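Sequence and structure are no longer studied apart. As an example, we show below a sequence and the tokens encoding its fold:
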Amino acid sequence: MGAETWLRENIKALMRMRHMNQGNLAAELGLSQAWVSKRLSGKDPPLGSRFQVHDLNMIARVFGVPPFSLLRPSAGWERRRSGYERRSGHDRRELYGG
């Protein structure tokens, strides 16, 4: 999986956590639902339909997360819903956005 795939999957996971659909995200971004749909579809997007650095900043702001975290493989947003993450057999309090 590449960064573009991780990005799409992380955005979709954050949307599920916040009970957002593409229209909600588009409204928060001030863009069209078609814009969001094209970028989240992952179906060999033509040039101009891929995420740009500016897009990452806008999307990260909506979700209250650092932009680089959207590019991480298996960011596991849904696992962290409660604010706790399991590490080395211990629960550690983590702060995640919003």
Observations:
- The longest helix spans residues 3-17.
- The domain at 3-93 is CATH 1.10.260.40 (434 Repressor (Amino-terminal Domain)).
- Confidence is low (pLDDT under 50) at residues 82-98.
- DSSP finds four helices and two strands in the chain.
